[in-house]
Amino acid sequence: MSHTIAARIQAAEEQLRQAMLASDVAALEALLDPELLFTNHMGWTFTREDDLDAHRSGMLKIVDLDLSEQCVLVRGDCAVVSVQARITGRYNGVPSNGTFRFMRTWAPDEASGQWRVIAASSVMVV
């Protein structure tokens, strides 16, 4: 069972990557839990709406997003993903490039069963 969940999470991670690259707000809405808590590498906390607004407005534009070193840990009804991401893009018109380590917690939505990110954090890799 955990192998099947891990495969689903890996597929969801790829969907998330594609949605972020395309600023596909509809796909991001489906993948990010309404109660999402995200803490970035600066220690700032964001909600799902903050993230969606950044994509929707064009404030955040990711040009390239290469993932590596992905590890999926399944426990009960949730999964934790650690992944390294090399990102090229712009935030508020300013180049924002770097390598980051993301930690995301995925859980199935109670109503639909669709896996969604409920919590995430990032650190800069130096």
Automatic annotation (TrEMBL):
It comes from the Bacteria. Residues 9-117 form the DUF4440 domain. InterPro entries: DUF4440 (IPR027843), NTF2-like_dom_sf (IPR032710). This is Nuclear transport factor 2 family protein. It comes from Achromobacter seleniivolatilans. The lineage of its organism: Bacteria, Pseudomonadati, Pseudomonadota, Betaproteobacteria, Burkholderiales.
